Amino acid sequence: MELIFATQNKNKALEIQGLLPSNTVVKTLQDINCDDDIPEDQPDLAGNALQKARYVYEKFNVNCFADDTGLEIDALDNEPGVFSARYAGPEKDSEKNMDLVLKKLADNTNRKAQFRTAIALILDGKEYLFEGKVIGEIRKQRSGAKGFGYDPIFEPENYGKTFAEMSLEEKNERSHRSRAIAALGEFLSKK
């Protein structure tokens, strides 16, 4: 089974390929000559994932999936949420995003947070949604040099280190994205 992943990031696609059943071939937007700036203007993660998947399905008539991920912080009323990538501005600067989170939390003692990933699959015209989440907390300062986004300030519950301090293998064992992909993979293995 061939699925188009609504991303231009070949590394992200390779990572996901390794987590799906062996009879599933993941291709990217580049493989179907799509360099469109696909809209993501829905109010929630599932809405954005569905919007991207629908765009690809309707324009190219291929089985596809899309994802959207957000960091939700209790003390900030679940911000940045759907705006995680552009929290500090449209340039999607991870350092500025982390600075803004740390500034807004300042001395707040409630540092509970969760990462959530929504995956929308369109298979033969039918839509399916999968979700993965990991609960943790926001550190008071950055720690670690691996990963991307908010990884240097997010520590998964009961682990003692941030995502940015983990190897890719460690992160994949417990990340929100890998949990959502596992749900997708389980569904695909039954097809």
Automatic annotation (TrEMBL):
Gene Ontology terms: biological process: nucleotide metabolic process; purine nucleoside triphosphate catabolic process
Keywords carried by this UniProt record: Hydrolase, Magnesium, Metal-binding, Nucleotide metabolism, Nucleotide-binding
Entry cofactors: Mg(2+)
Domain of life: Bacteria
GO CC terms: cytosol
GO molecular-function terms, A-Z: dITP diphosphatase activity; ITP diphosphatase activity; metal ion binding; nucleotide binding; ribonucleoside triphosphate phosphatase activity; XTP diphosphatase activity
Class of the enzyme per the UniProt entry, highest EC level: hydrolase
Family: Belongs to the HAM1 NTPase family.
Protein name: dITP/XTP pyrophosphatase
Source organism of the structure: Brumimicrobium oceani
Organism classification: Bacteria, Pseudomonadati, Bacteroidota, Flavobacteriia, Flavobacteriales
Gene giving rise to this polypeptide: rdgB
